[in-house]
Amino acid sequence: MTEFEVFKDKATKILNLDLSGYKEKRIERRTKSLMKRHDVKDFKECASRLEKDLKFRDAYLNHFTINTSEFFRNPKNYEYLQKEILPKLLEKNKKINIWSAPCSNGSEPYTIAIILNEMNISPSRYSILASDLDPEIIETAKKGIYGDSSIKNVPKNIFNKYFEKTNGKFEKYKLSSEIKNKVKFEKKDLINANFRYKDWHLIISRNFFIYLTKDYKNLMVEKFSKVLNENGYFFIGSTEFIFGSDKFNLEKEHLSFYKKTTK
Fold first, then answer.
1. Which of 23, 68, 70, 151 is the most exposed place for a label (fewest CB within 10 A)?
2. What's this model's pTM, rounded to 2 decimal places?
3. What pLDDT, on the 0 to 100 scale, is given for residue 66?
4. pLDDT over 70 for what percent of the chain?
5. Is the confidence at residue 23, as pLDDT, over 80?
6. What distances in angstroms separate CA 198 from CA 97, 201, 202, 203, one per listed residue?
7. Is 171 left (phi over 0), alpha (psi -120 to 50) or beta?
């Protein structure tokens, strides 16, 4: 075994996190980046720090997980969601359940909440759950404070209605409590956890699969599909594609959207 493979096995046990589902080059690249930042000389020392230093362990998880996201990313997708998908789901169901997994900094589930608010849909008619492995990014998401890069695609009228500039050295923008209160957050290891709840009408999992091995990508698509309602929608990243989607009972409808069907 290589030095990195030995480290990965130890890290898996220390973190109680199955790293085998993630592309190995990505894990190694991110680990080395963090080691450089914290002046850690080799993988052996890194494993020791993970075992003994809780702050370093949190820093590793935060650095390792996917924490890049933005509001209204790929605007055409959200336009289709608002005009075509959400009206269909709301017409057929008294209440729709929406799951963002992983949710990263919260900008995607909050985008959904903004859209539903703009559609004048009562909060009693939907629920939004946002899940992520990283507890630090969840706390960041709950605060709802964002920089320029996260809000660059927000239409001006939406920005003026739901964001306000904060006081501070750097320009930051705070999302309104009206929207923040519409999203519930939880810590969840998506790869290893069982998905017990099986009543989702819309699942958003954008730019997650590009980090996974082929086998684990298929495993995750299958897990998500099993808990998605018939005629529900699976919303993935614009550069992602589900090969052989029919074996997961998913049919591509438009751009990044797959619809759950029955054989």
1. 68
2. 0.80
3. 57
4. 95
5. no
6. 10, 9, 11, 11
7. beta
